[in-house]
Structures are given as structure tokens and as C-alpha cells.
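Researcher: I'd like a structural prediction for the single chain below. Treat it as a standalone chain; there are no partners to consider.
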Amino acid sequence: MKKENPIYKLIFNYHANLIEVCNIRQSLGLISDAKAEETNKKHCMGCIKAAYFGGFASDQVKELFEKED
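Model: Treating it as a single chain, here is the predicted structure.
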């Protein structure tokens, strides 16, 4: 079991907050649906990677990364 790393917790929070910002911009009509989807996909992967490498990911996320190795 990995010990939780506070730096990765900050990275996780950064990506999660940017998902919210992107959704707000899309709902206000400042960016297109396609651009919002592309950006959210990037930040969702950032959240997942930060959770895994930070040691606080769920078992399902851990399985995803262990299958790739």
C-alpha cells in the first residue's frame, strides 16, 4: 500500500476544479460542447493518474493501472 502523497492530492484537486470551471464555461456558452468534452476528458485522466500515483485511488482505478503493466 502506498502512503498518501500531499502533492498528488493538490494535483487531484487542481484537475477536479478545472473540470468544474470547464463545465461552467460550457454552460455559459463560452466554449463549444466538443471543446468542453475534450478538456474534461484530459482533466478526468489527470484526476485518475493523480489518485493512483498519490496512493488514494479506489481498487477499480488500481486495477486499470495494473492491467497495463
